[in-house]
Protein backbone atom coordinates (compact mmCIF):
# COMPACT_ATOMS: atom_id res chain seq x y z
CA UNK A 1 0.00 0.00 0.00
CA UNK A 2 1.25 3.48 -0.84
CA UNK A 3 0.83 5.83 2.13
CA UNK A 4 -0.82 9.01 0.88
CA UNK A 5 0.21 12.51 2.00
CA UNK A 6 -2.77 14.69 2.86
CA UNK A 7 -2.61 18.35 3.86
CA UNK A 8 -4.70 20.66 6.04
CA UNK A 9 -7.24 21.79 3.39
CA UNK A 10 -10.92 20.91 2.95
CA UNK A 11 -10.46 18.51 0.00
CA UNK A 12 -7.79 16.49 1.81
CA UNK A 13 -9.70 16.50 5.11
CA UNK A 14 -12.74 15.11 3.22
CA UNK A 15 -10.53 12.40 1.78
CA UNK A 16 -9.11 11.52 5.20
CA UNK A 17 -12.65 11.28 6.61
CA UNK A 18 -13.74 9.05 3.71
CA UNK A 19 -10.78 6.73 4.34
CA UNK A 20 -11.74 6.48 8.04
CA UNK A 21 -15.34 5.66 7.03
CA UNK A 22 -14.02 2.97 4.68
CA UNK A 23 -12.21 1.28 7.59
CA UNK A 24 -8.70 2.45 6.63
CA UNK A 25 -5.98 3.65 9.02
CA UNK A 26 -5.05 7.35 8.81
CA UNK A 27 -2.38 9.12 10.90
CA UNK A 28 -3.54 12.49 12.23
CA UNK A 29 -1.98 15.57 13.85
CA UNK A 30 -2.73 16.67 17.41
CA UNK A 31 -1.13 19.31 19.63
CA UNK A 32 0.74 16.59 21.57
CA UNK A 33 2.01 13.95 19.10
CA UNK A 34 0.69 12.37 15.87
CA UNK A 35 -1.97 9.70 16.37
CA UNK A 36 -3.01 6.61 14.43
CA UNK A 37 -6.69 6.91 13.57
CA UNK A 38 -9.36 4.36 12.65
CA UNK A 39 -13.14 4.09 13.16
CA UNK A 40 -13.48 3.11 16.83
CA UNK A 41 -16.76 1.28 16.07
CA UNK A 42 -15.21 -0.94 13.36
CA UNK A 43 -13.34 -3.91 14.88
CA UNK A 44 -11.41 -4.71 11.71
CA UNK A 45 -10.21 -1.12 11.43
CA UNK A 46 -9.18 -1.10 15.10
CA UNK A 47 -7.36 -4.41 14.66
CA UNK A 48 -5.45 -2.88 11.74
CA UNK A 49 -4.14 -0.18 14.11
CA UNK A 50 -2.76 -2.80 16.53
CA UNK A 51 -1.16 -4.63 13.61
CA UNK A 52 0.43 -1.50 12.07
CA UNK A 53 1.95 -0.43 15.43
CA UNK A 54 2.88 -3.91 16.62
CA UNK A 55 0.98 -3.04 19.80
CA UNK A 56 0.15 -5.68 22.46
CA UNK A 57 -3.58 -6.44 22.47
CA UNK A 58 -3.98 -5.84 26.23
CA UNK A 59 -3.04 -2.17 25.84
CA UNK A 60 -6.28 -0.20 25.36
CA UNK A 61 -6.68 2.70 22.94
CA UNK A 62 -7.86 6.27 23.43
CA UNK A 63 -11.20 7.17 21.81
CA UNK A 64 -10.63 10.50 20.11
CA UNK A 65 -13.57 12.82 19.41
CA UNK A 66 -14.18 16.03 17.48
CA UNK A 67 -16.96 17.18 19.83
CA UNK A 68 -17.77 16.26 23.43
CA UNK A 69 -21.32 15.44 22.25
CA UNK A 70 -19.88 12.44 20.34
CA UNK A 71 -19.23 10.75 23.71
CA UNK A 72 -22.65 10.28 25.28
CA UNK A 73 -23.42 7.07 23.35
CA UNK A 74 -20.29 5.37 24.68
CA UNK A 75 -19.31 6.56 28.18
CA UNK A 76 -20.90 7.93 31.37
CA UNK A 77 -19.93 11.60 31.56
CA UNK A 78 -19.97 12.63 35.23
CA UNK A 79 -20.12 16.17 36.61
CA UNK A 80 -16.37 16.02 37.34
CA UNK A 81 -15.65 14.88 33.81
CA UNK A 82 -17.74 17.76 32.46
CA UNK A 83 -15.72 20.24 34.58
CA UNK A 84 -12.44 18.93 33.18
CA UNK A 85 -13.72 18.91 29.58
CA UNK A 86 -15.01 22.49 29.88
CA UNK A 87 -11.62 23.67 31.13
CA UNK A 88 -9.06 21.61 29.23
CA UNK A 89 -10.73 20.55 25.96
CA UNK A 90 -9.75 20.75 23.25
CA UNK A 91 -6.37 19.96 24.76
CA UNK A 92 -3.85 17.63 26.32
CA UNK A 93 -6.03 15.74 28.80
CA UNK A 94 -7.29 12.17 28.38
CA UNK A 95 -10.06 11.14 30.78
CA UNK A 96 -10.87 7.56 31.83
CA UNK A 97 -14.62 7.07 32.26
CA UNK A 98 -16.96 4.08 32.77
CA UNK A 99 -18.34 2.71 29.48
CA UNK A 100 -22.03 2.20 28.83
CA UNK A 101 -23.00 -1.47 28.61
CA UNK A 102 -21.85 -3.11 25.34
CA UNK A 103 -21.19 0.33 23.83
CA UNK A 104 -17.45 0.06 23.18
CA UNK A 105 -15.55 -2.76 21.48
CA UNK A 106 -13.33 -5.01 23.66
CA UNK A 107 -10.57 -4.29 21.19
CA UNK A 108 -10.63 -0.60 22.15
CA UNK A 109 -10.87 -1.11 25.93
CA UNK A 110 -8.68 -4.22 26.14
CA UNK A 111 -11.58 -5.82 28.01
CA UNK A 112 -11.78 -3.10 30.71
CA UNK A 113 -15.12 -1.60 31.78
CA UNK A 114 -13.65 1.85 31.20
CA UNK A 115 -12.51 3.87 28.19
CA UNK A 116 -10.02 6.69 27.71
CA UNK A 117 -11.46 9.71 25.87
CA UNK A 118 -9.79 12.81 24.47
CA UNK A 119 -10.49 15.82 22.23
CA UNK A 120 -7.23 17.07 20.70
CA UNK A 121 -6.47 20.72 20.02
CA UNK A 122 -6.10 20.47 16.25
CA UNK A 123 -8.67 21.92 13.83
CA UNK A 124 -7.89 19.63 10.89
CA UNK A 125 -8.21 16.48 12.99
CA UNK A 126 -11.44 17.58 14.66
CA UNK A 127 -12.90 18.45 11.24
CA UNK A 128 -11.87 15.01 9.95
CA UNK A 129 -13.51 13.21 12.91
CA UNK A 130 -16.73 15.26 12.61
CA UNK A 131 -16.92 14.50 8.87
CA UNK A 132 -16.28 10.80 9.47
CA UNK A 133 -19.16 10.90 11.96
CA UNK A 134 -17.56 8.43 14.38
CA UNK A 135 -15.01 8.59 17.21
CA UNK A 136 -11.62 7.30 16.14
CA UNK A 137 -9.05 5.36 18.12
CA UNK A 138 -5.90 7.38 18.60
CA UNK A 139 -2.73 5.75 19.90
CA UNK A 140 0.50 7.57 19.10
CA UNK A 141 1.52 6.89 15.48
CA UNK A 142 4.88 5.24 16.22
CA UNK A 143 5.96 1.62 16.12
CA UNK A 144 5.34 0.21 19.60
CA UNK A 145 8.24 1.11 21.93
CA UNK A 146 9.68 3.93 19.77
CA UNK A 147 9.51 7.64 20.63
CA UNK A 148 6.15 9.17 19.68
CA UNK A 149 6.12 11.04 16.35
CA UNK A 150 6.00 14.83 16.40
CA UNK A 151 6.15 15.30 12.60
CA UNK A 152 4.58 13.57 9.59
CA UNK A 153 8.10 12.54 8.54
CA UNK A 154 8.45 10.54 11.79
CA UNK A 155 5.19 8.73 10.97
CA UNK A 156 6.45 7.97 7.45
CA UNK A 157 9.65 6.58 8.93
CA UNK A 158 7.81 4.10 11.18
CA UNK A 159 4.68 3.24 9.20
CA UNK A 160 5.23 3.94 5.50
CA UNK A 161 3.38 1.39 3.38
CA UNK A 162 1.43 0.08 6.40
CA UNK A 163 -1.27 2.77 6.60
CA UNK A 164 -3.51 4.46 4.03
CA UNK A 165 -2.60 8.12 4.65
CA UNK A 166 -1.04 10.76 6.86
CA UNK A 167 -2.84 14.04 7.46
CA UNK A 168 0.09 16.47 7.78
CA UNK A 169 -0.35 19.67 9.77
CA UNK A 170 3.29 20.43 10.52
CA UNK A 171 5.19 19.73 13.75
CA UNK A 172 3.16 19.27 16.95
CA UNK A 173 3.34 21.98 19.62
CA UNK A 174 3.44 20.25 23.02
CA UNK A 175 5.60 17.32 21.93
CA UNK A 176 4.68 14.96 24.82
CA UNK A 177 1.56 12.77 25.04
CA UNK A 178 -1.53 13.97 26.93
CA UNK A 179 -2.01 13.69 30.68
CA UNK A 180 -4.21 10.66 31.53
CA UNK A 181 -6.56 11.03 34.52
CA UNK A 182 -8.70 8.16 35.85
CA UNK A 183 -12.09 9.34 37.13
CA UNK A 184 -13.29 5.79 37.81
CA UNK A 185 -10.99 5.36 40.84
CA UNK A 186 -12.12 6.27 44.39
CA UNK A 187 -10.15 9.52 44.01
CA UNK A 188 -9.16 11.17 40.71
CA UNK A 189 -5.80 9.63 39.81
CA UNK A 190 -3.16 10.67 37.26
CA UNK A 191 -2.00 7.61 35.29
CA UNK A 192 0.31 9.45 32.88
CA UNK A 193 1.87 12.89 33.29
CA UNK A 194 1.53 15.49 30.52
CA UNK A 195 1.06 19.20 29.91
CA UNK A 196 -2.01 19.37 32.18
CA UNK A 197 -0.41 19.21 35.64
CA UNK A 198 -1.60 17.81 38.98
CA UNK A 199 -1.89 21.39 40.23
CA UNK A 200 -4.11 22.47 37.32
CA UNK A 201 -6.38 19.43 37.80
CA UNK A 202 -6.64 20.01 41.56
CA UNK A 203 -7.67 23.64 41.08
CA UNK A 204 -10.46 22.74 38.64
CA UNK A 205 -11.82 19.73 40.57
CA UNK A 206 -11.49 21.48 43.92
CA UNK A 207 -10.30 18.25 45.53
CA UNK A 208 -7.27 16.05 45.97
CA UNK A 209 -5.85 14.48 42.80
CA UNK A 210 -3.55 11.47 43.32
CA UNK A 211 -0.33 11.16 41.30
CA UNK A 212 -0.52 7.45 40.46
CA UNK A 213 2.74 7.65 38.49
CA UNK A 214 5.11 8.35 41.38
CA UNK A 215 7.58 5.52 42.02
CA UNK A 216 6.49 4.76 45.55
CA UNK A 217 2.85 4.25 44.62
CA UNK A 218 3.76 1.24 42.45
CA UNK A 219 5.36 -1.93 43.84
CA UNK A 220 7.68 -3.87 41.52
CA UNK A 221 5.27 -6.76 40.94
CA UNK A 222 2.20 -4.53 40.57
CA UNK A 223 0.53 -3.86 37.21
CA UNK A 224 0.14 -0.17 36.47
CA UNK A 225 -3.46 1.03 36.01
CA UNK A 226 -2.66 2.42 32.54
CA UNK A 227 -1.63 -0.85 30.88
CA UNK A 228 0.60 0.98 28.39
CA UNK A 229 2.91 2.26 31.11
CA UNK A 230 4.32 -1.21 31.81
CA UNK A 231 6.02 -1.51 28.43
CA UNK A 232 9.45 -0.14 27.46
CA UNK A 233 8.73 3.14 25.78
CA UNK A 234 9.96 6.17 23.92
CA UNK A 235 13.30 4.50 23.38
CA UNK A 236 15.68 4.94 20.47
CA UNK A 237 17.99 2.01 19.70
CA UNK A 238 21.05 3.85 21.03
CA UNK A 239 21.76 4.29 24.74
CA UNK A 240 20.40 7.49 26.26
CA UNK A 241 22.03 8.98 29.38
CA UNK A 242 20.36 11.74 31.39
CA UNK A 243 22.50 14.54 32.84
CA UNK A 244 21.77 17.23 35.38
CA UNK A 245 22.63 20.72 34.04
CA UNK A 246 24.70 21.24 37.22
CA UNK A 247 27.03 18.49 35.95
CA UNK A 248 27.44 20.01 32.48
CA UNK A 249 31.08 21.04 33.00
CA UNK A 250 32.00 17.49 34.06
CA UNK A 251 30.10 16.06 31.11
CA UNK A 252 31.89 18.42 28.71
CA UNK A 253 35.27 17.14 29.97
CA UNK A 254 34.35 13.48 29.62
CA UNK A 255 32.76 13.50 26.13
CA UNK A 256 34.18 10.94 23.72
CA UNK A 257 33.93 10.47 19.96
CA UNK A 258 30.43 9.30 19.06
CA UNK A 259 28.79 11.07 22.02
CA UNK A 260 25.91 13.40 21.12
CA UNK A 261 24.33 16.03 23.36
CA UNK A 262 20.73 17.28 23.66
CA UNK A 263 20.56 20.44 25.77
CA UNK A 264 19.41 24.05 26.01
CA UNK A 265 20.89 26.30 23.34
CA UNK A 266 22.98 28.21 25.91
CA UNK A 267 24.71 25.00 27.07
CA UNK A 268 25.34 23.79 23.51
CA UNK A 269 27.10 27.10 22.79
CA UNK A 270 29.85 25.99 25.21
CA UNK A 271 30.60 22.76 23.29
CA UNK A 272 33.16 22.37 20.50
CA UNK A 273 31.41 22.54 17.10
CA UNK A 274 32.50 18.95 16.39
CA UNK A 275 30.13 17.48 19.02
CA UNK A 276 26.85 16.32 17.40
CA UNK A 277 24.18 18.37 19.15
CA UNK A 278 20.40 18.87 19.24
CA UNK A 279 18.87 22.02 20.68
CA UNK A 280 16.19 21.74 23.35
CA UNK A 281 15.50 25.46 22.88
CA UNK A 282 15.60 27.90 25.77
CA UNK A 283 12.97 26.65 28.19
CA UNK A 284 10.94 23.67 29.40
CA UNK A 285 8.24 24.08 26.72
CA UNK A 286 10.92 24.09 24.00
CA UNK A 287 12.59 21.04 25.51
CA UNK A 288 9.29 19.11 25.58
CA UNK A 289 8.51 20.12 22.00
CA UNK A 290 11.90 18.92 20.74
CA UNK A 291 12.70 15.87 22.91
CA UNK A 292 11.31 13.04 20.75
CA UNK A 293 12.53 14.60 17.49
CA UNK A 294 16.08 14.76 18.92
CA UNK A 295 16.04 11.12 20.04
CA UNK A 296 14.89 10.08 16.56
CA UNK A 297 17.44 12.35 14.84
CA UNK A 298 20.43 10.81 16.63
CA UNK A 299 19.11 7.29 16.19
CA UNK A 300 19.51 7.81 12.42
CA UNK A 301 23.07 9.22 12.65
CA UNK A 302 25.73 6.57 12.03
CA UNK A 303 28.46 8.60 13.74
CA UNK A 304 26.51 8.75 17.03
CA UNK A 305 26.87 5.94 19.61
CA UNK A 306 25.47 7.48 22.81
CA UNK A 307 23.02 10.28 23.48
CA UNK A 308 23.34 12.59 26.52
CA UNK A 309 20.12 14.50 27.26
CA UNK A 310 19.48 17.27 29.77
CA UNK A 311 17.09 16.70 32.70
CA UNK A 312 14.51 19.38 33.61
CA UNK A 313 13.24 20.58 37.01
CA UNK A 314 10.79 17.92 38.23
CA UNK A 315 7.64 20.07 38.42
CA UNK A 316 4.56 20.49 36.19
CA UNK A 317 5.44 19.84 32.52
CA UNK A 318 8.97 19.00 33.72
CA UNK A 319 7.54 15.85 35.36
CA UNK A 320 6.16 14.67 32.02
CA UNK A 321 9.43 15.49 30.22
CA UNK A 322 11.57 13.68 32.84
CA UNK A 323 9.19 10.71 32.80
CA UNK A 324 9.57 10.22 29.02
CA UNK A 325 13.32 10.82 29.10
CA UNK A 326 13.63 8.45 32.06
CA UNK A 327 11.95 5.69 30.04
CA UNK A 328 14.08 6.39 26.97
CA UNK A 329 17.22 6.09 29.13
CA UNK A 330 16.08 3.07 31.11
CA UNK A 331 17.13 5.09 34.20
CA UNK A 332 20.78 5.66 33.14
CA UNK A 333 22.21 8.90 34.55
CA UNK A 334 25.54 10.65 34.05
CA UNK A 335 27.90 10.63 37.05
CA UNK A 336 31.64 11.10 37.06
O1 LIG B 1 -1.46 12.68 23.45
C1 LIG B 1 -1.97 11.56 23.33
O2 LIG B 1 -2.70 11.06 24.22
C2 LIG B 1 -1.70 10.79 22.04
C3 LIG B 1 -2.36 11.54 20.89
C4 LIG B 1 -2.17 10.85 19.57
O3 LIG B 1 -3.72 11.76 21.16
N1 LIG B 1 -2.17 9.43 22.13
C5 LIG B 1 -1.56 8.50 22.93
O4 LIG B 1 -2.15 7.23 22.91
O5 LIG B 1 -0.58 8.75 23.60
P1 LIG B 1 -1.43 5.92 23.44
O6 LIG B 1 -2.34 4.80 23.09
O7 LIG B 1 -0.04 5.85 22.94
O8 LIG B 1 -1.46 6.08 25.01
C6 LIG B 1 -2.68 5.90 25.73
C7 LIG B 1 -2.41 5.50 27.17
C8 LIG B 1 -1.78 4.12 27.24
O9 LIG B 1 -0.79 4.14 28.28
C9 LIG B 1 -2.96 3.22 27.61
O10 LIG B 1 -2.56 2.08 28.32
C10 LIG B 1 -3.81 4.15 28.49
O11 LIG B 1 -3.67 5.43 27.88
N2 LIG B 1 -5.24 3.77 28.48
C11 LIG B 1 -6.08 3.70 27.43
N3 LIG B 1 -7.30 3.29 27.82
C12 LIG B 1 -7.24 3.08 29.14
C13 LIG B 1 -8.18 2.64 30.15
N4 LIG B 1 -9.43 2.34 29.85
N5 LIG B 1 -7.74 2.56 31.43
C14 LIG B 1 -6.47 2.90 31.75
N6 LIG B 1 -5.55 3.33 30.86
C15 LIG B 1 -5.92 3.41 29.59
MG1 LIG C 1 2.08 5.63 22.67
From TrEMBL:
SUPFAM superfamilies (UniProt xref): YrdC/RibB
Reactions the enzyme catalyzes: L-threonine + hydrogencarbonate + ATP = L-threonylcarbamoyladenylate + diphosphate + H2O
Pfam families attached to this UniProt entry: Sua5_C (PF03481), Sua5_yciO_yrdC (PF01300)
Segments forming domain YrdC-like: 10-196
Its EC number(s): 2.7.7.87
Keywords assigned: ATP-binding, Cytoplasm, Nucleotide-binding, Nucleotidyltransferase, Transferase, tRNA processing
Cellular location(s): Cytoplasm
Entry-linked InterPro entries: DHBP_synth_RibB-like_a/b_dom (IPR017945), Sua5-like_dom (IPR006070), Sua5/YwlC_C (IPR038385), Sua5_C (IPR005145), T(6)A37_SUA5 (IPR010923), TC-AMP_synthase_SUA5 (IPR050156)
Listed GO MF terms: L-threonylcarbamoyladenylate synthase
Enzyme superclass (EC): transferase
Transmembrane domains' residue ranges: none
UniProt family annotation: Belongs to the SUA5 family.
Stated role: Required for the formation of a threonylcarbamoyl group on adenosine at position 37 (t(6)A37) in tRNAs that read codons beginning with adenine.
Protein name listed in UniProt: Threonylcarbamoyl-AMP synthase
Source organism of the structure: Fructobacillus americanaquae
Lineage, highest ranks first: Bacteria, Bacillati, Bacillota, Bacilli, Lactobacillales
Amino acid sequence: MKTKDLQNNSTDIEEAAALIQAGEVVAFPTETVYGLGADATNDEAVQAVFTAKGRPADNPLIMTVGDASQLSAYVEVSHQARQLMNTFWPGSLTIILPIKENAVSMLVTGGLQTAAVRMPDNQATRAMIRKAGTPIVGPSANLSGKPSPTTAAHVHHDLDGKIAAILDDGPTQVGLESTVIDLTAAEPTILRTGAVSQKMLTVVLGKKVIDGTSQKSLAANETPKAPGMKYRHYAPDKPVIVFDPLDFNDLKESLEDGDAVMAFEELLAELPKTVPSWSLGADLAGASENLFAGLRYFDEKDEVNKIYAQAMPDIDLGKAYNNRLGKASGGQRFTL
